[in-house]
Amino acid sequence: MPQFMAQWQKLGYTYDAVYSGFLGNAEQISLVMEAINRFHRTDTVIIVDPAMADDGKLYPVFTGKIVTSMRTLVQKADVITPNYTEATMLLNEPYTPQAPTTKKIQRLCKDLTTLGPSQVIITSVPCDHDKLKVVCYNARTMIYDEYVIPRIPFATCGTGDIFTSVVTGALLQNKSLSATIRWAADFVSYAINYTYKAGTDSREGVQLEPCLSYLRGLQQQK
Fold this sequence. Notes:
The chain is α/β, with parallel strands linked by helices. Helix content is 43%, strand content 17%. The chain contains eight helices and eight strands, in the order αβαβββαβααβββααα. The strands form two sheets. It has a six-stranded mixed β-sheet, sandwiched between helices. Strands 3-4 form a two-stranded antiparallel sheet. Helix 6 (159-172) packs antiparallel against helix 7. It starts with a helix and ends with a helix.
């Protein structure tokens, strides 16, 4: 990758955003940080999905060292999109499966901005038994917002990647953070529900392509 990045620099390539998702180890995190250092401009948006944990525990491929490395990467970001578990880990706070109060989740958002990013989105926040929240906070405007979505009884891989990809596209189209979380959450919910109703094996991930027309419809809404 360093050789590729050097060539891109030589060719004068520039980028509107640098966006990272699942990173398997500290070395890959270092490569993303190098990409940020090479290609960051004043108008480049740095978006980090600190994908490393869910349901109160790290993914089996990781040890606790990944949290320290991820905090370093988060310092470089403008926008981060942790799930609720990852948000607590980044702040070294205990995780509980019970629904947090609005006051607590607002504090988590504000505390995450002290790590570096000015905008925070937290997904999969426990809510009612059949619902989840997506919340956001913009430290520049001091605006907090939340969006409640149905909890679908189907867990599969890749949903966080899709969510943050839609977030990236929305922000590059100058959507507000509040509009962005609704756009991304609605699309991911639709895609998960479509995949669930199709009887897809959860190990195969989301059926993304058949759902893209729905995303186009969201994009065309005012």
